[in-house]
Design goal:
2 domains; Rossmann fold; 15 strands; 41% helix; alpha/beta; single chain; 11 helices; 368 residues; six-stranded mixed beta sheet
Length: 368
């Protein structure tokens, strides 16, 4: 996995696979032009590596020149193709072969055809290293190509994302996983920790417990931990932006995860909005919020039993437990409304065996 600007990319094609594709194109062209001296015209910037290796593999006399066109900004084509470097002057009456790094929608190819329609070349043909057949409009024939690939955004071997990545010898594809991001609700004793562990293992999710994140940062004296502790020591609430920054760091550290379980955050509508804004900036979103619901009396008995083992005083006093339930109810009610309006709130019966509750959670997630 590599990072370019704000995006992550994973390996798609090895250097060996690429060079075999280059050789394939060179062999195809060489078979047709062994008795001629064609002019190869590379399309900058993306084709410079392809042109270099193609010429090394091409066995017959030839000439080379370049044009420069552009239609991409970031991840998408603008649909407007600009000519930044015009055609060479010595092409009249010659056989010209365009060397493209990649052909996808065909917009750039259309502009190339337009450029050559105003010249007196003997013939011109199109050779591309990569070819996205499923999105190509099919308006013009592709005479030679090295490798047909699916419609994925790729970088490396001359191809870029916002001008980074051209120098890689291998080709990488944008890491676009179907991520599942959950907010897990539940009163104390509802089994959030147990079920979060299952979800983490079953779906390759990263469990982010706000409490654990706070403790880690404070214990290790990170900048955020020191900042949070300064508020706590004064008896003030830690600002939401500090908490969000901690969560952002956790997300950044776990790029291999197929999603995240947020536990203990958000606790207010303002925090939910802040979380949505943060995830949106990463092209992510909350897919579902799941509340483990259980009868208060059942949960009280669970906590009292847990208190005998854990030694936690707040698990050994019924009044303290009920106060915690009241606090949960008052804070969760606005959040329930917030996520219900988005169609993302799911209530799951938290009474039963661990396996039974797990099965109920699985049905919700599989339905996503």
């Amino acid at each position: 996995m590599i990072q370019l600007h704000d995006k992550y990319f994973k390996r798609f094609l090895s250097e060996k696979e690429i060079l075999l594709a280059v050789q394939r194109v060179a062999d195809q062209v060489a078979a047709d032009y062994k008795d001629k001296t064609p002019i190869f015209v590379g399309v900058l910037n993306g084709s410079f590596m392809f042109v270099s290796d193609f010429l090394k593999a091409y066995p017959h006399p030839c000439e080379v020149s370049f044009v420069k066109l552009s239609s991409y900004q970031g991840l998408t084509s603008t649909g407007i193709v600009e000519t930044l470097l015009d055609l060479p002057d010595n092409i009249e009456g010659r056989s010209v072969i365009i060397l493209e790094d990649i052909i996808d929608t065909g917009r750039t190819l259309k502009e190339l055809v337009h450029l050559f329609s105003n010249t007196n070349v003997k013939e011109f043909k199109i050779a591309s290293l990569f070819y996205k057949a499923e999105v190509y409009n099919g308006e013009y024939a592709i005479d030679y190509f090295g490798l047909e690939i699916p419609d994925r955004f790729i970088v490396g071997y001359g191809l870029d994302y916002k001008e980074l990545g051209r120098n890689f010898r291998e080709v990488y594809q944008l890491n676009q996983k179907h991520m599942i991001n959950l907010v897990l609700f539940g009163k104390p004793g509802a089994g959030k920790g147990t079920q979060a562990q299952f979800l983490k293992e079953q779906y390759n999710l990263q469990h982010i417990s706000t409490g654990d994140v706070f403790r880690y940062n404070i214990k290790n004296g990170t900048d955020l931990g020191t900042l949070a502790k300064s508020y706590i020591d004064k008896g003030d609430l830690v600002p939401d932006e500090v908490t969000i920054k901690m969560l952002e760091d956790e997300v950044a550290k776990n790029q291999e995860a197929d999603g995240f379980i947020f536990d203990g955050f958000p606790r207010t509508v303002a925090q939910a909005e802040a979380l949505d804004n943060f995830l949106e900036s990463k092209d992510m979103k909350i897919n579902a919020t799941i509340a483990l619901e259980a009868n208060d009396e059942v949960l009280i008995q669970r906590l009292l039993e847990r208190g005998k083992v854990s030694g936690r005083t707040d698990d050994q006093d019924k009044d303290k437990i009920r106060n915690r339930f009241d606090e949960y109810n008052s804070k969760t009610a606005p959040l329930k409304t917030y996520y219900e309006e988005q169609g993302k709130f799911h209530s799951v019966n938290g009474i039963g065996t661990i396996a039974e509750i797990t099965e109920r959670l699985t049905k919700v997630i599989e339905g996503l």
